[in-house]
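Box 4.2: Ligand-aware structure prediction
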Amino acid sequence: MELLDKLNLKHVINASGKMTAIGVSTASPTVAEAVKDGTQNFVEIEQMINAVSRVIAEETGAEDGCPTCSASAGIAIAVAAIITEGKLPLIERIPNTEGLKNEIIIQKGHVINYGGSEVQMIRLGGGKVIEVGASNVVAYEHIEEAINERTAALMFVKSHHVLQEQGQSLETMVALAHKHCLPLIMDAAAEEDLRKYIALGVDIVLYSGGKAIEGPTSGFMAGKSQYMIAAREQYKGIGRAMKIGKENLAGLAIALREYRNKNHHVKEQIASMTYLCNVLDRIDGLSCTVTKDDAGREIYRAQIKVHSKVTKITAKQINKRLIEHNPAIYVRHHFIDQGILSIDPRTLKNGQEETIMSTIKSIIQGASKHD
Ligand SMILES: *Cc1c(COP(=O)(O)O)cnc(C)c1O
């Protein structure tokens, strides 16, 4: 890409999936065209925000929506929307919420850092974070006991960073919130299902626009109309410091429209990862298998087990060399402690399998030479 050379940036091969640190996702040609269109035209921004909100509502099944510049901004804006109820004098006071109902209750295990801090985003929106339970145990009573007249909302985070089975479930949190006439906010930033959580009755669901949906850098929320109206009003307050531009509004709308008919290219994924595995399997000390995503999504990755006694180099060391390589190669390293590296085919461009295979091969050959 010409731009990378103009700025003298390292080329990157992404075999890791949707990672923010290396640019999350790439947009389809039609989404890229929409972004370009957006940059080159004037629009009435309020009308455009309302139109994109309707697209969000249609694609999620929610009453209404609100576009944001990221899921992180969505957390802050959602909290501010609930606390201010969309009243301008209060909007202008955020993040100062003294004397207002401002407590946001969250299970301790959901207090994660996804690259940014969940609790900081809540505070940015004027929320006072009330953590309940312990990181590995949260009882129903812990949450119910924390609810009082200053409680503004309950918060739930869905992420691979959260040990989801150790706390109270989403269904329980929805029921508990509604029993006390409180809204439930859900951070579903990286989730793929746009309808499930709304259908379960969650009041505000937050998504990232650049992850599963493969839009430009953006985010959005879907939910009950009173909260979505109040959320859009925040663009007169803290939302201004986190505004989404017209080009990203345009790209987000098109990405959302395309998402329901998205082709996962399962056959191509399996063919390319099988080819890669067949080659890597022949290297002494590596065994490679094609495996479906643990969460059941339509992703077929090559899982490479490194037997370091034979290769004379550990999976961790191979990973480090791959990142230092030019072009830099980023693979998935979730199970690196077990000696496993995985290749995610979704983000690979034509022919990059070859570079990955030959680089791994030469790293291992180099290691055995030094033995
Ligand atoms: C990625 C992520 C975010 C942040 O999303 P951005 O759109 O990058 O701000 C928030 N929460 C979770 C669980 C995430 O995975």
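In the box above, the bound molecule is pyridoxal-5'-phosphate. Residues 20, 70-72, 114, 157, 159, 187, 189-190, 208, 219 surround pyridoxal-5'-phosphate (CB under 6 Å).
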